[in-house]
Amino acid sequence: MSDLAVLGHRIRHYRGRAGLTLDGLGDLVGLAGSQLSLMENGKREPRLSQLQAIAAALEVTTTDLLSEEPPTERSRMELELQRLQEGAVYSRLGLPHVRASKTMPDEVLRSLVGLQRELDRRSREAIATPEQARRDSTAIRLQMQQADNSMPELDALAEEQLAAVGYERGALTHRAVADMATRIGFELVYVTDLPHSTRSVTDLEHGRIYLPPASIPGGHGLRSMALQAIAHRLLGHSEPTSYREFLQQRLEINYFAAATLMPRTASVEYLRRAKQERNIAVEDFRDAFGVTHESAAMRFTNLATVDLGLQVHFLRVGDDGALMRAYENDGLPLPMDASGAIEGQVVCRHFAARTAFDRASRTTEFYQYTDTPSGTFWCSSQTGTGTDGEFSITVGVPFDTAKWFRGSSTQRRSQSRCPAETCCSQPAPEIADRWRSNAWASARMHQHTLAPLPSGTFPGVDDAELYDFLERHAPDEADVDAARMGQG
Ligand SMILES: [Zn+2]
């Protein structure tokens, strides 16, 4: 909702209360009634001196006029109708813009707003079908492949923010993250009742970022969540209007968080030294910056090509072999469906990402060379356990560049002929013959299939739960007013 439109409504509201016509107020402040009318319709911005004159004539303060709240419920509906009609969904219909005139009954206005709001909601729902989600996700993956998974402008932004809070080296403290939030006018608030469908919630009105409690095990994910919330603000993100935009925003906030926890300059310096020693290891990189193995592995792919001259791949695979996340610019043959989507596709049984689950000791990285139809790759895998079961994180490179990594001397070798079905996805014919009519199994629901996304302002987030949460946590209006007075 544009601030000018709200301002216009507030001027009209107070003019009505003062019992003045447009010309009547115009006479008092030295403006033509027609100019005032443009202001009330949000089509012209008053100069500060004009605003002061109007406020004086209406016996209110300029702060009263500049409040972002619509003055009445009726006005809120009128403004919403205007906003919805200006939106892409309504515009496509080629229907006339209906102006909420003074004579339009409240119930007609409420009905129009309700219908258009629902139309808006349904179109968002339609955008977020699993098919579209998969297409969008593939498009983003290919876009990042083109860019060697690097976003230098976000690296620069992260380093600028770090410099401003006095960061020098090593792991980033929670304190420094809180300082970064303060610099952009936000306070980090830890709560135990975040809506289930959210990772963090930001109250823009009161400048608060709500996060889960700091004391939860594995709390280092918390810096990342706070940084992601900060990134939304720094990057000026607004409500995503498509699933693609939602994914793009998520990519950017994840990248920013990683680039802050593992700043480019310090990381590249660290990794170059490891390369000189032919001893690059994601586990060392992880420990040097105090992050999760997955974050370190992903971050490594941001820097490997541009800064270290290495083509790489990254896989996150579940213990059922399904791919959850992947990136490659080294030609590793990833399993994909006809549309090019990789999520939920089953990775070759002979890849390190899967053989890593077989060994008894899983405390260190697991190394393996794998021959594929696209050449031989060296991979390093680490297994772990998450909320949705076991998974493996794999980083690897083509044979020729394995020499820069710890574990390149491994004797372990494996052959993959995937995507040929005779490699590992089909049983041997004699075994299939034996069991085909002699067995029965009950399927587990697939966790990785992209389920239809709940509709709402933010894909995947339950609006009702979200707004209820914000209501519950909003600071007392009296406190806020007091704080504002203090500032003024
Ligand atoms: Zn295979």
What is the overall pLDDT average? 87
How many β-strand runs? 9
- Beta-strand level of the residues, as a percent range? 5-15%
Proportion in helices? 40-55%
Order of helices and strands: HHHHHHHHHHHEEEHHHHHEEHEEEEHHHH
Shape descriptor:
elongated
Stretches where pLDDT falls below 50 for ≥5 residues? Answer: 451-455
Q: How many strands, which pairing sense, and closed or not: the largest β-sheet?
A: 6 strands, mixed
> Rg to the nearest angstrom?
28 Å
Helix tally? 21
Strand order of the largest sheet: 5-4-8-7-6-9
Class by alpha and beta content: alpha+beta
Distance between the termini: 26 Å
Key features of this structure:
6-stranded mixed sheet, 9 strands, alpha+beta, single chain, 488 residues, 21 helices
TL;DR of this structure?
With 488 residues, the protein is α+β, with helices and mostly antiparallel strands. It contains 21 helices and nine strands.
Structure description:
By secondary structure, the protein is an alpha+beta fold. It is 48% helix and 11% strand. The strands form two sheets. A six-stranded mixed beta sheet has the order 5-4-8-7-6-9. Helix 6 packs across helix 8 (106-127) and helix 9 (130-146) crosses helix 13. The structure holds zinc ion (ZN). Residues 348-350, 416, 418, 423-424 line the site of zinc ion.
